[in-house]
Amino acid sequence: MSEPEDPQEVPSVEEALGSVSEQLGFTGPEEELEAINARMLQIKEEVTADLLATWPSPWKNESMVSAKVTGRLGSHKSFQVLLARRRELDEQLGTDSGPRANDDAQDPMGSYAIKIARDREAAKKPGS
Question: Per the count of CB atoms within 10 A, which of 63, 83, 84, 105 is most buried?
Answer without folding.
Answer: 83
